[in-house]
Write a structure and sequence with these properties.
The protein is mainly alpha-helical. The protein is built from 6 helices and no strands.
Length: 129
Amino acid sequence: MFLLTAIRASMLLRLFEQKRAHSICVGALESIAILLSAAAVAWSRVYLGYHTLEQVQAAAAIGAGLGIAWVWLMARLDGAFSYVSTSTLGQWMNLKNSWGVADVLHAECIMYHSTAIAMPTASKSKAAE
């Protein structure tokens, strides 16, 4: 979860650069919710006795570090993820490159509706056979 928080924070910085006020507010609320969820899970692991405080702190540091490394890597290797996501393995894993997309949900809705419209015609042709 700390990995997700670090990645989300970098996305907020990108939205801030694009000066999208509504997206910044929603993104900030999402980031706060993710961070609070991560903190609640971390606290529960110690409270229930599954892990020590040191183990949880180490995992949080590793997660945050991996998130920062991922953001740095994606910013430096422009186009590398596109190559991986279009490879055979990337298509099999259904990887999607949404790094530069400001409103991912809207883009996903457009893609879903465009494929949903195309699907009935394909199924009709199979039914005719």
